[in-house]
Amino acid sequence: MMEGRHEFLCGVVEGFYGRPWSMEQRKVLFQWMQMWSLNTYLYGPKDDLKHRLLWREVYSAEEEAQLKALVSEAESRGLTFVYALSPGQDIVFSSSCDLTLLKRKLRQVSDLGCQAFALLFDDIDHSMCQSDTEAFSSFAHAQVTVANEIFRFLGEPPVFLFCPTEYCSSLCTPSVSKSPYLLTIGEDLLPGISVIWTGNKVISRELSPESLAEVQSVLRRPPLIWDNLHANDYDSRRVFLGPFKGRPPGLRAHLRGLLLNPNCEFEANFIPLHTLGSWYKGKEEGKGDEEAYSVDRALSAALQDWMKELSLPLQPGRQVRPTDLKPSTLSVKSKSSDSSDNQHGAQPKCPITSSQSTGALASDEIPADPFMSHDLKAGENQVFRSFSHEKTSRRGLCSGRVPLSESQVRLLVGLYYLPHEHGPHAQNLLQDLTWLKGNCHCVSVNGNGKKVAPQKVEEWRECAGRFLAACDDVALLHSAVVNSINRAVLYDLYPYIWDLRNTLLVAKAFICWLEGRILSEGSPLGSWKNCFHWCGASSGAELHGVEAEPWVFKGGLSGEVQMLLPVGTSSELFSHPPPLFPTSRLYNIRPFQQKDKVELYRMVRQLYQRGKGSQDAAISHPDFIGDRCLGASLALCPEYSLVLEDELGVCGCAVGILDVRSFAKRCQATWLPAMRDKYPSRPHGASGHTATKEPLLYFHEEQDYPDSLLYHFPSQLRLEALPELVDCSVSRSLLTTLLTALKANGSQGVFCEVQPTDGLRMEFLTKLGFLEILRGEARPREGVVLGRLL
User: Fold this and answer.
1) Quick check: 525 and 746 in contact, CB under 8 A?
2) Which helix (H) or strand (E) holds 718?
3) Of 123, 338, 499, 596, which is the active-site residue?
4) 721: which DSSP letter?
């Protein structure tokens, strides 16, 4: 155990919202910390019931054994193990009973060998009950009284931390220097107690000695930084793989310590913690700030070591791990550090699914972990099996598993860099998409009524080429992650790269669609440029002109790309749980070409035959189903027809009609007469059989939709996809691309017809915001009409 009240504490806080790490993951964490010279681990996961919600309850014998083993493991590696408790939600400060229960709980942990503690009063209401109001002069007075009492009760341990309710500048009322709460803390809290602080914000982009001087003066002691730079529990679409940055090594002279609160996903924290170790070790050697820590050098060293880690055949939950991994130049051999992750003030992170947010152990190897609920274990075992028992089919998974290349790892880190900053690849991608959007008039149907210089068109095409190549790089990265040998990393990062792959699949298809199809601004149907959007090289949140917390705009790179699309504000089109069975198959969505017609006709005929289960006279003509389902759209408005394909060929399509009224007139004038000649109502040899005549009558009946429908929903669509698709999200991306194109050219609403017996399609569309809009006699034929506004 590290001694010395004035030793700089540097390490990790496990204090985030979400499923706590497993015991095996914590042991790996302690190995990392020892290698990288970190020295402090704070245990305080928000979702450990006995840490926060049920703080009064003592640990069972089984839980005691595991906690004692964890404390011993940390001590054996030279780490200070800090046990944190968060009683602030419902403690009665004036209650002798609550104070006794608090002492009992901490005495139990102290008897297990723990000698460092923390009381956390973050993320709670400032109000007090009546008995507390009568007993204490202020909320701060109540907290200080309890903290001082516990500090003395524990024998004034050398490490005792206190997290105030006002823990950053933006939460102080009216300001840091004038906050009655902080002034009371600084004046009345015993000097041996260290105070936790996060900086100017909950998630501070930078920390500087100047920004800390004021709070140090008010608190009358150097603060301990609880650093949320890599915390991601506030956004289910973001993870941060970038280096420790924005904290000059010279800060150590002004701090009691710095503990990093990292990503919920354990495997995402290799580079953040590795570079934190470089930051700490550099200044410890007495070098100047610039010499002590270079972000680029630290990142390069961390990347080299992570490449070794990624080449290991680790399973979710890290059941298998080598005992020795030698660090590269900027890594360090052995010192001590252990820290815990917690984010102050951030909202709990909604998991991408109820069981897919972090790693888990195999079902037959999961220990009885008191820090993980049994229902989560069961759910995560199910997800683990989906990664362990991967199936192979036409649309299934590739079997080969290989390590990621260095360029792929650098791309991965750049896509998920830091909360206030994108990596170079992500910056270029956003800048190109923004430019393509702003200059789409160069490739519009009529060039906005003006002649566009050929060089401007060529410039647009070159930019589009770069953007499409960048999207392809991400798609290949997605496949590589799915096929990677390190399944632990796949388990933790797959939901994020899958989400970005899908968003870019839509964006890429939309850029491919734009040229020669986007209407000019002079079109009566409107313009895409009226759609709300934001984007920047660093972060969209900065467009407000002030530094905003990263959760103001959610989604990270994926969210920013989404918001640059015409349907970007429709989050239900983009935010969905990933599939249980990840597939590495490459997909592409592109505009329809006439050569696709034969394959599309074959596909819809195959789908019809599967639905019917047998042949019938109605489909004896090979073109009949294709003409009925797709023919008119492909012939009269091919510009709103999209094709989904994979390595094996066409596997889906989406066809749309921008203006059903005008389309119906054209259809009556040209398409239907041709079809009536091709499919007469009384075919030769039919002998009047009803089973044969009824389908053929489709082209001989009047098809009309009420004005009340077309007023709000002027556009129509149809979606077809092979059922063998393992990842149904590509069907969602296909439909979203079509909606994006329709919205770009001015559509305000779209509808489609679904057979009432097609429950899967009804559910699929309902999740994307479609609702039944026609009932009873107003419905055309026998289909159910679903619609959504754009």
Assistant:
1) yes
2) strand 715-721
3) 123
4) E
